[in-house]
Amino acid sequence: MLRSDHRTGIDRFANRRLQVSRSAGSTGNEFAMDVPLPPPTFYVCPGERYAISRSVHWARLAAFYDKCRDCPHQHDTGLLPARLVRAPQAESALRAVRRTRQLLPGGVRGRYLNDIDRQTAMAWARAFAARLWDDRPFPGRLMPVETVSASRPLPWRGPVVVAGFDERPASPDVAVGIITGLRQMGCQVLDVGCVTRPMWKLAQEWFHADGGMFVTGAGCDPAWTGWDMLRAGGRAQIAPAELAAESSVPIGRPTRTAGTVATRTILADYRAGLTKWFHALRPLKVVCATPLQLLRDLLPPLFAPLPCQFQVQAWPRQRTIVDAPPPGIDRLANVVRETRADVGVLIDEDGATRTLIDEQGKPLPPSAWQPWLQRHVDEPLGEDGVVILGAVLQALSLSDAPFSERLRGPAC
């Protein structure tokens, strides 16, 4: 956005003159030349509220500043060398980092810093908090009007929001923007720290939260980040496309009092809730792969008192394709065959299990094992990969038949 000083107008600069005096030697004659100065030009980068000078504008262009990609004045290059602004490698680099932010059914994904940064997360958090405020009924006055004063304001509590983040390096920085935006809107934030997505969803149920935001780049390349949003109470989820439009405009604060932040630890309670699935198992050989270090540290203590042989392996973070086998699943299948394991399981970065491997090394999609598992479990399992692993082992412990034979008939 290009702007000039509109308070005094151009006349202010027309009155400024450059007095150039020259001596005419011994004659003593002098002459003066008045040179009017042009008005200074200012620029405002996209997404910023402060103005910068033309020199700073050119410096950012020369340094390939990220926001110059979307600036309508990116062609105002002045006297910059052509190799800096029209070089083929520069143009290809700009095309390579075009905004590729993706709107998912329950969240957003994008490249860290190129598409999503702390300021972007703050704007989305404010828009999400505004929707949570709209969901809350007005409670009315709890005391007579004459007793309300500045020292004793009306009691009011903002929405309770559970915030967490995954293990990606960019997630803590984005989480700072999320929590800051929620606090600016008066929300009561419960920070559960670095957890898995099932832990974050479980924390919302435990704390009876109005909603939650989870910073994660699950399903995308390692350089990507984003967040998932969830409203509690069975309410319909907010369309990310609607929040995208609302986050681009200023949003009024519902209260002048900032919200609070409280830290909560749920790992111990989550581990205690898993004991119902990891007991009374027959000797089984299990191979598990996951990119989550939290689960690689959590699972071995669960199997320690059991007669099972458990092996856990690290799995790379990578883009996942819906309704397609995970890339590199053959490597895990080979490990299952070589170790003669009874079952292999892949827990994705979002904490869900979508692929099981039988004792023959055959990958099984959810459509192949979910109906069989539901016949042996009386309660809904959800998406928690650790819970699904325990339920599968409970079902396999009911018979000595191999996993592949158990899947063939309804009576197995």
Automatic annotation (TrEMBL):
Keywords: Isomerase, Magnesium, Metal-binding, Phosphoprotein. The keyword rRNA-binding does not apply. Its cofactor is Mg(2+). The keyword Phosphoprotein applies. One of its GO terms (molecular function) is intramolecular phosphotransferase activity. InterPro entries: A-D-PHexomutase_a/b/a-I (IPR005844), A-D-PHexomutase_a/b/a-I/II/III (IPR016055). Residues 158-235 form the Alpha-D-phosphohexomutase alpha/beta/alpha domain. GO terms for biological process: carbohydrate metabolic process. Belongs to the phosphohexose mutase family. This is Alpha-D-phosphohexomutase alpha/beta/alpha domain-containing protein.
